[in-house]
Specification:
69 residues; alpha+beta; Multidrug-efflux Transporter Regulator, Chain: A, Domain 2; 13% strand
């Protein structure tokens, strides 16, 4: 049965999200702590064990918006 990619969002770990954004892991944590990450439309999702996850689609949208300005 083929996998339907449009149904399930892709979540990234903090390292992959930081690389995609071009920042360090520490910077990404700091942006979250200061509430700045939400200003870019990127929300932090937590696993039951409190690991950070980021939606790849939100990061790509934020990067696209920043490239247009």
């Amino acid at each position: 049965m083929p996998k339907n990619d449009s149904q399930e969002p892709v979540f990234l770990r903090i390292g992959a999200a930081a690389r995609l954004l071009g920042v360090s892991i520490s910077t990404l944590r700091r942006l979250e702590k200061n509430g700045r990450l939400g200003e870019y439309g990127v929300k932090v999702y937590y696993t039951p064990t409190r690991r950070r996850r980021y939606k790849k689609s939100e990061i790509l949208e934020a990067l696209e918006r920043s490239a247009q300005t």
